[in-house]
């Protein structure tokens, strides 16, 4: 089965936008959001769809569809990743841009929210083609992105190499004296090209941290606990890596190609090495038994980490989940209906806008470093991410306890109140 077909089945169109709007409306009611500000936040400021031609290795020209949606910039420049995926459409990018606004607001960063990407299956293209596609997309985006305006970063199927191409293309379009000062047009760059030490692991590390803080609050030891991960890309792998260091055991993994399980532990490092040498697929990994896709979320485990795409935990599988904690490494992995089922079953959920915010927090440090011409070391950076995430986690827990709310509602309240305050202080132009 090709990646395209598999993923299309997993992600019904329109689902994510409906989901984020339901979450937003519920939160707006909770904070009694000013109706005029609600009108602003329920729409996206700018939506860009661009078609651009690229020459393929065989000489043919293919025309691609790229997106950048800027949801809101009340708190600062637009910020958010670029994903390369066949299921990308305008509604999914709008939803993902909104989630970025809530995420950056909750984390207390001076950013708004955006998201973008290209509707492609990157597995079908050579590295040279991907470079030309990325560079031409950057050129087509032109001044719609910029270091103090809208700052992309990696997301699903994009990485530090993608960011290096974008930075180089963007900087090359400037005059010689302007080039260096535009380096922070993207974050998540390779360390040799203005990237931040540890930005690669920042999201997965943050997922691990929120699980650790949650367990500490509940007096639960992570040592000996079992966990499953959906999506073994950058986020899933690093979350598993740090959980294993804490003595927890990875017992199930699902990726776009298949699902495997081993109650004695799959071994995150060995699995990651295997996947690298197996065209990005976990199929055939000898230390795990292949299981049916439908059985994945029902695996025996303590912690479930969806770290792939949106709308994966739905009404259909929420009843089957055995974990006592769902930690959302992905954006929008749980539908509102599924969340109700999980909460009724006393399963806690660390919501995406908190759980995976280590990535954009790392991005913020990279942006600051570039802007100030500084270079920080890995231990210093991980300590800064830890401090920031501990502070955000504490605020969400406190609100959730005081208001007797689930963690998502508490996180949304804090995120929306901060944006509302900015609008109330500044008023509406003119
Ligand atoms: N793509 C990541 C996210 O969804 C990171 C965004 C960023 O660093 O700007 O949070």
How is this structure best summarized?
The chain is built from 14 helices and twelve strands.
Write out key terms for the chains shown.
16% strand; single chain; Rossmann fold; seven-stranded mixed sheet; 430 residues; binds glutamic acid
Description:
The longest helix is centred in the C-terminal third of the chain and has 25 residues, at 378-402. Helix 4 packs across helix 14, helix 12 packs across helix 13 (378-402) and helix 13 packs across helix 14. This protein is of the alpha/beta class. The radius of gyration is 21 Å and the shape is globular. Among the domains are: 43-184, 3-Layer(aba) Sandwich (Rossmann fold), CATH 3.40.50; 202-350, Rossmann fold (3-Layer(aba) Sandwich), CATH 3.40.50. The strands form 2 sheets. It has a 7-stranded mixed β-sheet, sandwiched between helices. Strands 1-2-4-3-5 form a 5-stranded mixed β-sheet. It contains 14 helices and 12 strands. Glutamic acid binds at residues 79-81, 103, 153, 155, 187, 331, 356, 359-360, 363.
